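[audit] Reproducing an earlier prediction to check determinism. Same input, same settings, fresh worker. If the tokens differ from the archived copy the diff job will pick it up downstream; this log only records the rerun itself.
[audit] input (372 residues):
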Amino acid sequence: MQDKLAYIDMEKCTLCGACVESCPVDAIELNKEHASMEGIENYKGVWVFAEQRDGTVQSVAYELLGAGRRLADDRNAELSAVILGSGIDDAVLLDLFQRGADRVYVADDPCLKMFNDEIYSALMVRMIQEHKPEIVLAGATAMGRSLIPRVATELYTGLTADCTGLEIDRDTGLLLQTRPAFGGNIMATILCENTRPQMATVRHKVMEEAEADTSRQMGEIVRIDVPDEDKKTHMKVLEVVREVEETVNIAEADVIVAGGRGLKSPENFAMLTDLAKVLDGAVGASRAAVDAGWIAYSHQVGQTGKTVKPKVYIAVGISGAIQHLVGMSSADVIIAVNKNPDAPIFEVADYGLVGDLFEIVPELTKRFSEIL
């Protein structure tokens, strides 16, 4: 207050609106101009970034094609897949059509063999500016999280990250983008009203993969050339180092054995590895175990890790914080092992074992070894 009047320092104001709501006499108003971009009506269709590695389309792309097909049908629009790489064969393109794509944009160039976010983003921006899709979807993977924010920034449009739900609003035709917020305690639905395209990254394993329809044949293929100016980059990929898993990758596993602070030390993860190997599964972990340095981040399940959807999820020594549940609650069967009968994990578990995990896990490994 200055001279009994409300004073707002506009250099520090973030336009959050909190002062408007808290003013007891309604003396403050916040007026924002929301002008739509020019030519917004010209943007049509749904694009899916079909992430590939070494010529193999990643399963997250099939999940996006399933969601994209539904959204495109709701908008009475076409679904297109966009694939960038080197040496992409026709079988890969046919697969994308059989998974629901009406059109495939393909850029095949030696400079795209190794993922480089500068080159990839420059090309994506150019393609979007030329073809004007209404919606662009990508996986919330390491590649997607590196690429898509750069694209959205260059296009001056909105981006919703780590979505778990996508729907078309029946009244407005806008994309309803749902994601966890405030530490996973609420689900926020976000709209991009005034700019195009509407862009979202989607967490892996939260949507069903599009089934391959072998009756579908090769559709329209649009070949994209990479201009020399898009090949300019400030960095060069010298080598790709892949982490060698002792067990299956958690993103693709049907069975996951995950450990938390209850394991007490990194050495005790060996118990989980033994059980996972018997079950032909993968080893996961809570954020607490990863933050403690007991296991690599690539094993982390949860809001800040990976979202998984296995047939069986065995949570060992994990209390069940909401941030962890966000990443694994879609499992078909959840089995919890914890000495605390009041642990939140038991509220979502289909089966619970209350007791000493250092006795229970070796016994489970022994029994499954005899059965399998």
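[audit] rerun output stored. Observation attached for the diff report: DSSP finds ten helices and 17 strands in the chain.
[audit] end
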